[in-house]
Amino acid sequence: MKKFLRILKWVGLVVALIVIGLIVAVYTLKDRTFETPAIVIKASTDSAVIARGKYLVYGPAHCAHCHTPNDKMSLVDEGQMVPMSGGRLFELPIGNIYTPNITSDKETGIGAKSDEEIARVMRYGVKTDGHALFPFMPFYDIAESDLLAIVSYLRTLEPVKNKVQDNTYNFMGNVVRAFIMKPEGMKTKDRPKILATVNPDSTTQYGEYLARYVANCVGCHTDRDLKTGEFTGPEFAGGFKLPGEGNMELTLVSPNITPDPETGVMYNWGEEMFIKRFRQGRTIKESPMPWGPFSRMSDLELKALYRYLKTVKPVKQDNGPTVVKTADLK
Ligand code: HEC
Ligand code: HEC
């Protein structure tokens, strides 16, 4: 018995040391910064380049949906050029994340940052302060021409002074930051070749480009772990549970948009119907989908999206009702 107690004491001590070690590791690693390969970019003043940037920012890339306060969403939906002064709150299992001010204000926005630093946010998922970004903005494989268009347009934004609150992370959030968060898009081997330039057209190739790298349909219409952003389900088959927009008591479940005859919501839609649905905009008030910005996509781009989604592998996956009470999930 005595021997047993002695062993127990040692085991307890070792466990305590491991726990302390882990906690120390979390607190030393949570604020780590990253180096990324250099990016060569210089904002353009060409009006066509800037116009393309503006179209992407307020349209398919929906930057304006996220970089504006929550209570301005309906104005963004209507198509107003709400300044992207940040402050939208995402309440996640890891803590509270606020979108930064991306207007040209030198103090509170990105006015003092270089073109390279801003491009790096999108290409590698590393913030201008060197920290890895939570995977809200998977633009890692966006074409060079579109990256240039976006950066060039951001440079034209009027400065708006708005100091956004710092993110707050709980312990789990710090564990994720310490051990899981890292720059993205650095795996050159299995990374698809970045396109130098894209020409908007109605091909499935361009549709895939939008669905994956610009509009991020894949990011919401694939099941994933909300703590790490890790994909856990088949692509485009939905089932990802997102907090209701402006109403945490509701959870929205993204539908299956693969062409499965039984469980794919778009299976019976023709191209006209798809375009009409996108032009219609938001029908569920609490939906986190940026319907407003998407409603302003060109016919050409909507056709491309539709045609691409019809080529995706059908997945039989019934995700149940789209709107559920958050309390019922626990
Ligand atoms: C789904 C929401 C969402 C979308 C869409 C989005 N962002 Fe962001 N963005 C964020 C969040 C959240 C952060 C901060 C994340 C963090 O702190 O980890 C951020 C960070 C940034 C930063 C970093 C600022 C800095 O000082 O480091 C820039 C620049 C930026 N976004 C620009 C853009 C642009 C340009 C677009 C469109 C092409 C865009 N964002 C689309 C949510 C979004
Ligand atoms: C921020 C997350 C998010 C993004 C990004 C997103 N969706 Fe959705 N989508 C949802 C959710 C949640 C719903 C269910 C609520 C609703 O219908 O608004 C939905 C619904 C849909 C529907 C069904 C609409 C209906 O009336 O039945 C289609 C089709 C769709 N999305 C296609 C797309 C496509 C195509 C893209 C990319 C261009 C996209 N989504 C991007 C979250 C998202």
Which key terms come to mind for this protein?
330 residues, mainly alpha, 2 domains, 3-stranded antiparallel β-sheet, 13 helices, binds heme C
Fold and architecture overview:
By secondary structure, the chain is mainly alpha-helical. The protein has two domains: about 160 residues, no CATH class; about 130 residues, no CATH class. It contains 13 helices and six strands. Strands 1-2-3 form a three-stranded antiparallel sheet. A three-stranded antiparallel sheet has the order 4-5-6. One heme C binds next to α3, α5 and α6.
Topology, please?
Blueprint: H1 2-29, H2 47-58, H3 63-66, H4 73-78, E1 89-92, E2 95-98, H5 115-124, H6 144-154, E3 168-169, H7 171-179, H8 204-214, H9 217-220, E4 241-244, E5 247-253, H10 271-280, H11 291-295, H12 299-311, E6 323-325, H13 326-329
Antiparallel strand pairs: 1-2, 2-3, 4-5, 5-6
The structure holds heme C (2 copies).
Residues 57, 61-63, 65-67, 90, 97, 99-100, 102, 110, 118, 121, 127-129, 133-134, 136-137, 139, 150, 154, 167 line the site of one heme C.
Short description:
By secondary structure, the chain is mainly α.
Overall form: globular
Cα end-to-end separation: 43 Å
DSSP summary: helix tally: 13
Number of strands: 6
Biggest pleated-sheet summary: 3 strands, antiparallel
Mean of pLDDT: 94
**Strand sequence of the main sheet, in spatial order?**
1-2-3
Overall structural class, as computed from helix and strand content, comes to: mainly alpha
Helicity level, as a percent range?
25-40%
